[in-house]
Every structure is written in C-alpha cells, then in structure tokens.
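Exercise: predict the fold of this chain.
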Amino acid sequence: MKRGIFLNVFIVTLLLLSVLPFSSEAQTVMPEVLSTSVTGPAGTLNLEIYIPTGTTSPKPAVVFIPGNGEVGTSRAKLYTNGPLNFIKNSGWRPDFIVVGAQPSGTWPNNAFTHTVLSHLVATPSYYIDTNKIYLTGLSAGAEAIDTYIKTQSNPVGLAAVVPMSITYEASCGDFYAQTDYLCGNDLKWATIPAWGFAGSNDSHWEKMRRFFYLMIDAGYNTRWTTYSGGHSGWNAFYNPTYEETINGVSMNIYEWMLQYSRGGTPPPPPTNTPPTANAGTDKTITLPTNSVSLTGSGTDTGGSISSYAWTKVSGGSATIASPSSATTNITGLVQGSYTFRLTVTDNGGLTATDDVVVTVNA
C-alpha cells in the first residue's frame, strides 16, 4: 500500500513538472546576473543582465554589444570580452547595472540595438535609470553604435558611448583626399559624449581616428585613445583597473561615462590643486670637498608627482649629475654661494618650486 502511494505521488510530480513553464531567467551564470531573452524585428536576442545585489531603486546601466565573434545562441560568448568578463572572472562588482546583448545574426543592426534598448527602458524590474544609459561595443558592436546614433529615427536616449575598433567615416568630403568634414548625420554625435579606442595596427584605425578628431576639432565632448596593437586587445580597456588622467583625475571608462546624464550637463571638471616642492635643507661644505648631495621631494594631494627637475639659479660653475631625479649629486663646486631650484610637476601639469642654498667655504 505504501509503495502504491509513493508511486502515485511520483507520477503526479512528474506531470506537474511537465506543464510548468521553463524560464531561461533561471539559468544564471552567477546570482547577480539575470539571463533572459527578448524578441523583436531582429529575432530572438539573448541578454545577460548584472544587477547589483540589493538594488531597489534605479541605477545607471552600461550596455555592451559584442563583435561578430560573439553572435549566436551561446550566452557564454557574452563573457569573452567586455565588462561581463570582469564581473564573472575577476570578482568585480560595480554599483551599476551591466547588460550584455547578444545578436543572433551576423551583424548587430539598428533593429537589434533598438530592440535591446527599448526592452531595457520598458522593464521596471531591471531598475534602470533611463537618463543614465551608456552604450559600448567592440568591432561590429562599435559600428552598431555609430549606425544607431546616425540613422535611428527615434532612438532611445544615450548619456555617453564608448566604441572600440571599427571604421567610422564622415558623411561629407573625401577621406583619402583629406578633405572630409562633419555634416548631415554626423551632427547627431554633437550631444553625446564619446570616447573612442582603436589599435594603431588595426585596418580600421585611421578612419575611426580621423572621424573622432573631426568631432574633437568641432568642439564635441569627445575623447580618443590609440593603443598599440591590431583589431583586438579590447579587454585591456574594459578592465576597471585601466585608467587615464582626465582633468587631473584618473578615470576608467566606466567612471568617465557615469559622470554624464542624458539631456544634462556634465559636472565641472575636478579642480587640480598644485603640488608642493621641498628642495631640502641648506648645505655648507669646505674645500677641498667640492661635491654635495641634494635630496628633494614633492607631494600632491589631488594626484601624483610625474617629474622632478633640478636647475642652478645662481653661483659659479657646477655640474648637476641627475637633474631629473628627486635626489642628485652636485659636483665641481668652487668657493662661493650657490642656489639650486627643484621643480616638481604633477600628473595634471601643475608645478611647484623650492630653492636650496649651498655654501662652499675656502
């Protein structure tokens, strides 16, 4: 009798499981990541959405579009390059939402990009701040960004973009004759802060670099970085430890994007305070000793010291052995009084000086 009851319960359980809907959202790479799909004109697209633990109110969202090597149906490819790679493999846990969007075809076109962005802003459970959506992509994903900005008739608003390694061309002029200029759809870039990357050995590099410099010269809020390499190397810049000094402050690409809001104005650039220099205490020596060691230092509360420079301000003949080091020897001194000056320069280009007096007795 007990065996029959157990068998009946087992069969009922199997029947219930067979009719319950199977959700792809349960197939997560890690607890903070929601695996889901969305269907639109571009077909069924995979999304991997990292939402910081404990999120209950809107947060900024960085949306990543990969290149052709990551298209298809294998979600694992979304962790090969881009920010999700570092969330999964390095333990990085940013306090903003990260979305990996996988095209099912061979090229992420406007239908793909618009389907993804429209779905994200229309889904409250993702907790996305619709004024702080940032778009980044590599190779074909970078091309998708350019195409979306230039030609989408009713685009979802973007706060900033970071495209990497693809051909961008100005709409007017002749690139090969060095006469191209911005016009038409190019002008749609004017209100979107953009930071472009490409390798100097990439076949796409020259056209993309020239297009970005046209925007820089036009006064757009645009940055450009050329790195050594070809059509690869993107993860070096998606790594949150990669930083560049911007207005005296070190920023990675995420910190740079997060300072912008759609339709808003960026915060004023951080104020770079000057460094301080200390050339050390005055020195006195007596001939025949004709050399002395000087030890200086520099401090910078808002950054770091990037260089030192010793110069002679007054006095007779002398040789500064290491003029670009904090510590240097001065040789070939003769009787009299000398003044040597230490100049320190910080990573924002500001300088400070301090003098030290060396007295040489007979």
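Check your answer against the key: The helical segments are 2-19, 83-89, 110-121, 140-151, 205-217, 235-238, 253-258.
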